[in-house]
Amino acid sequence: MSNAIKMDWLSSAEGESLLHHFYARSTNKRRFYGILERPPIPSSIEEVSYKIFMAGKSGVGKTCVVSRLSGIKGSSSSGVYVETNGIKRTTIFWPVKIWDKVVLFKLQFWDASENSIKKYSHILPACKDKVDAICSVFSFDDTATFNDLPQLMNSMAATKEKPASIVVGTRYKVWSTLAVSDVQVKEFEDKWKVKVIRIDTNKAVARPEIFDCSYQLNWICSALWDRDQEFISKQVVQV
Amino acid sequence: MTAHVLCLTSSGGIPVFVRKKGDGDMITFSKMASLNGVHMFLKSQNIELLCTDMPDTNVVWKEFEDSILLIAIASGTTNNVLNRFLEAVFSAMILIVGIDEIKNPRNVERLKRDLRVCNPIIDRLLECLDIGDRICAKTDLVDMTDSIMSPENHLLQSCLEGYMECLDSLYGCLLVHGCLAVATESWWSLDPIERKLLIIAATCDGTCTARDLPVFLPNKSPNVAFRLVSVTLVNHVEVLALCGPTPELAETERLAIQSWRSSIDILRAAEQCYPRNFPASVSLDSEILGFLLANHVIGKFVLSRNSQNSKNRVSGTHRLDILRTFYYQAVETFLLSGPSSNRDTEEIDKSVKPSKSKHGQVFEGAKETYWCSEFHKCHALKEGEYVFCVLYTSIVPTHTMRLLSQKTLKSLLADKQVFW
Ligand SMILES: Nc1nc2c(ncn2[C@@H]2O[C@H](COP(=O)(O)OP(=O)(O)OP(=O)(O)O)[C@@H](O)[C@H]2O)c(=O)[nH]1
Ligand SMILES: [Mg+2]
């Protein structure tokens, strides 16, 4: 992993000065943008767009992760689980400082449940078409979902786009014994050369919610950035 | 007060799902078994059990396709509404899994599982029932499209038509905060419940940028799934379209940008029209607290609160709830009970039987009705396809309500740009 991305940049003066563009003034919640809109930040800031497919067993928390990263606190409104029907696509804008430049990441998350994929044949091809990253999701509560990761990653990696690999573990709690241990995670990270991003989508937050997912979003952007660098360097070698 | 809906298999009486709204307890298994048992027993005697009325609660049974029994138990509502509610619940089940899986389930456990996706839709249908609870997010009616009269609907209509042409689809509409602003002609040819369910399905699981939902159409296509594609254009404004296998989601988004890019200001203006829901060019008299304008032929309505009237202390949604109660209880009973409407409870058929007058004309229900209570008054006026229900402050003299309603209805319908 390169350390091109400054992980705590959002708390810097420059980061904070951009932050209000991502909030709705009236509600003080994260602003949501339709496809015709983008945050009103200076147009000099470059925008890069990525497609990320959320993969993982039913109920591991794919939908919750996306909605938490988009600024919705405490999972689905009432906390009751509803299987995702069809494809749900969510765009999240995220500013990142790379070396000395601010870049706006437009992250397009494609979310579908395994059951929908099984039932309707058009869903998986649509999700995998021109995909930039596969985000494999497991639950820290459920060892089986962790053990399934290699198979999941292999089955998804076989696309011609050579997508980046992102791994997210949900229901993570510090200071408690989890079904999937830190040692296992470390081993996995070393073997697969990926960072496991930990999240608890239900965690109560005291400070502005954006600070509690900036770490996760920065890691996602970092994985995408690294893949692009690798891609560019390969092209150079070929020439 | 509470409303429940139960779903059981007809043959075995196996519970498929139970949903409820309100503060009452979840229905017990033994009660569920008795409600099913009494229906089954009468069926074996060749008697169809339709409903029973208790002092404060009504129970309605309805069997579908000889395979599913739905039971609604609710207080404060009419059997007529409960019957339509059950129709809508069954249609929601078809919408998600298709009629084949309901008629010939390979196994009930799997059907149960697949129908869990319906829960949020059924919960929204429960919200349409009027059970006298004051806290509800939105006042909605069970089989009519919630809509908005935005000031530049005529422009939105032509954008929508352009977009639908690109998609090569006939069925599409534009939603502002979940209220329909404009729709294609074919969209209105869909069954009212289909329209209602498509909008609920596209809006019931939170915001997202775009969606691709497989849906069966309960009436039009119960066996073959369509794709309901929705794209959020600007925050709170989304466009829905029914598509076949193509174009795929990414392509619909590209076409949406192409078709709507130049209309972003009109879309934002439409968004600003909510929650007023009618153009700022029309002003309401201060005696008016809110109104419900329905087109009972097409099946759509606009609900609005008079924001100028701040004197009234009754909280917003509760106030609009009164209009819904008035509509379900008075308007549907007295104004819409003519032969043209298919309201099928015998209760109504008996009380207001369409009778030929001596000139040979068919009685089509009353033209006006009103309620007076200590705190407010309601007045309803029927004019052609429209029913206009107005909530007044209690100080308005009863005989002037008619004049105010007529005047306001006229000015609402006069604006041709509204395109309603
Ligand atoms: N406490 C806690 N609960 C979580 C977390 N992530 C998910 N959940 C719960 O797990 C349930 C399932 O989450 P979803 O996000 O709907 O699962 P999904 O992966 O999208 O499931 P499918 O759509 O069926 O594929 C929900 O009820 C969440 O409340 C987490 O990080 N912490
Ligand atoms: Mg999901």
Order of helices and strands of chain B: EEHEEEHHHHEHEEHHEEEHHEEHHEEEH
- Tally of domains of chain B: 3
> Looking across the biggest beta sheet of chain B, what order are the strands in?
6-13-12-16-15-14
| CATH top level label of chain A | Alpha Beta
* Count of helical stretches of chain A: 8
The gross shape of chain B turns out to be globular
- CATH architecture of the largest domain in chain B, by name, is 2-Layer Sandwich
Amount of beta strand of chain A: 15-25%
CATH topology of chain A, which one? Answer: Rossmann fold
Computed structural class of chain A: alpha/beta
Gap between N and C termini of chain A, in Å? 25 Å
Taking the sheet with the most strands of chain B, its summary is: 6 strands, mixed
Structural class of chain B: alpha+beta
Q: What's the CATH topology name of the largest domain in chain B?
A: Beta-Lactamase
**Which segments of chain B are poorly predicted (pLDDT under 50) over 5 or more consecutive residues?**
339-357
**What is the average of the pLDDT values of chain A?**
88
**Looking at the structure, what is the overall shape of chain A?**
globular
Protein chains sharing the most extensive interface: A-B, 32 and 38 residues
Give Rg of chain A in angstroms.
Answer: 18 Å
Succession of helices and strands of chain A: HEHEEHHEHHEHEH
Descriptive notes:
The complex is a heterodimer of chains A (239) and B (420). Chain A is α/β, with parallel strands linked by helices and 239 residues long. Chain A has helices at 13-19, 62-69, 114-119, 123-128, 143-147, 149-157, 182-192, 214-238, and strands spanning 46-55, 87-98, 101-112, 133-139, 164-170, 196-198. Chain A contains 8 helices and 6 strands. In chain A, strand 5 (164-170), helix 7 (182-192) and strand 6 form a beta-alpha-beta unit. The two termini of chain A are 25 Å apart. Chain B has 3 domains: 2-127, Beta-Lactamase (2-Layer Sandwich), CATH 3.30.450; 146-272, Dynein light chain 2a, cytoplasmic (Beta-Lactamase, 2-Layer Sandwich), CATH 3.30.450; 288-343 and 361-414, Beta-Lactamase. Helices cover 36% and strands 26% of the residues of chain B. In chain B, strands 6-13-12-16-15-14 form a 6-stranded mixed beta sheet, sandwiched between helices. Chain B has a 5-stranded antiparallel beta sheet with strand order 2-1-5-4-3, with helices on both faces. In chain B, helix 2 (79-97) runs antiparallel to helix 5 (119-127) and helix 6 runs antiparallel to helix 9. The longest helix of chain B has 20 residues, at 316-335. Chain B is globular and about 60 Å long. The model of chain B is unreliable at 339-357 (pLDDT under 50). The chains are: A alpha/beta (239), B alpha+beta (420). Residues 56, 58-64, 75, 79, 81, 83-84, 113-114, 170-171, 199-202 of chain A line the site of guanosine-5'-triphosphate. Residues 62-63, 84, 111, 113 of chain A line the site of magnesium ion.
